[in-house]
């Protein structure tokens, strides 16, 4: 059934899955390393990327030092918030019924 679906709907050959597995066998360790260097590692290059890190106050200095050692220019900001904005429990304000609503 899968083969028919692939052939009829996706336009692939009857042996597509086997051919694909054979191609996977041809991929070497060096091919994978080269692909990682080309596509993944640039994401972590301090010269061409921006990192946003959120951490616990107790880890700020350690995180800052690590990023600086990796070559990033670090700008530290503290997130200020109003504790009254925090939702208490799992219900939101809209979902909570007042005493008056329950009596009617």
Structure description:
By secondary structure, this protein is mainly α. The protein has two domains: 1-44, no CATH class; 47-76, no CATH class. Helix content is 45%, strand content 0%. The protein contains five helices and no strands. The protein has helices spanning 2-10, 16-26, 29-40, 60-69, 99-103. The relative contact order is 0.05. The mean pLDDT is 83.
Helix content: 40-55%
Mean pLDDT: 83
Shape field: elongated
Q: What is the end-to-end distance?
A: 58 Å
The SSE order reads HHHHH
Model regions low in confidence, pLDDT < 50 over at least 5 residues: none
Query: Care to count the β-strands?
Result: 0
Beta-sheet strand percentage?
Answer: under 5%
Structural category is mainly alpha
Q: How many domain regions? A: 2
Radius of gyration: 27 Å
Annotation field: number of helices: 5
Largest sheet: none
